[in-house]
Every structure is written in C-alpha cells, then in structure tokens.
Amino acid sequence: MVLAKVIGTVVATQKVQTMEGLRFMVLRQVDLEGKASGGHVVAVDAVGAGVGELVLYATGSSARQTIATDKRPCDAVIMAIVDNWEVGGEVKYKKGESD
C-alpha cells in the first residue's frame, strides 16, 4: 500500500463495459511528512474518497481484490481513507488538522 493525496478526478464517458459505474481519482504519492513525492496515478475509488483527502492505495493484482474491482481490468485502487498516522510515536497527520 502507498500513501497518497487525492488531487483530482478523471471522467471517461467511453470505457470498457466492465469499468462502468467506477469513479476514477488522480493521486499524488506523499512522504511520511505528507509532502508530495513520487509520481501520479489514476486509481479506482472503492471507498468514497474526495479531493484533498489522504488515502492508501494498492496496485497490481492487489488492486483487483476489492468488491468494487473484482474481475475488472484495474491496476490501482483506493482502499482506505487515512484518519491519522504516526511515526516513532510522533503524530505526523490527523485528518481535519491542516488538510
């Protein structure tokens, strides 16, 4: 799983039938301080995430292990919305505080 921030949405009116009904979000990887790092990815949203939220996403075959993505040609899926995280006993992020 990878930490990322939802920075946008993707709308695709023409897509394969098995992808109908799915929401696509643009994610930017973040480091343990919550700062942008790494690249961007488009992921299926399986949990109702919104722009600006921090999420955990999975890629590869793991991305097809949710109810929303089972047996679909999906390579990335948002599988959790982050409430908080800590590293070495220090809280690095808490949802709602300086999002």
Model description:
There is one protein chain. This protein has 99 residues and is mainly beta. It has one domain: EutN/Ccml (OB fold (Dihydrolipoamide Acetyltransferase, E2P), Beta Barrel). 0% of the residues lie in helices and 47% in strands. The chain contains no helices and seven strands. The chain has strands at 2-10, 24-30, 36-45, 54-59, 76-81, 84-87, 90-94. Strands 1-2-3-5-4 form a five-stranded mixed beta barrel. A two-stranded antiparallel ribbon has the order 6-7. It is elongated and about 45 Å long. The mean pLDDT is 91.
Total number of beta strands = 7
Helix content: under 10%
Q: What's the overall geometry?
A: elongated
CATH topology: OB fold (Dihydrolipoamide Acetyltransferase, E2P)
Individual helix count: 0
Broad structural category: mainly beta
Q: Which quaternary structure do these chains form? A: single chain
Strand order of the largest sheet: 1-2-3-5-4
State mean pLDDT (0 to 100 scale).
91
Strand content: over 45%
Q: Uncertain regions: pLDDT < 50 for 5+ in a row?
A: none
Q: What would CATH call the class?
A: Mainly Beta
Specify Rg, calculated over alpha carbons: 14 Å
CATH architectural type: Beta Barrel
Order of helices and strands: EEEEEEE
Main sheet record: 5 strands, mixed, barrel
CATH superfamily: EutN/Ccml
In whole angstroms, how far apart are the ends? 21 Å
Overall structural domain count: 1
What is the compact description of this entry?
The chain has strands at residues 2-10, 24-30, 36-45, 54-59, 76-81, 84-87, 90-94. It is an all-beta fold and 99 residues long.
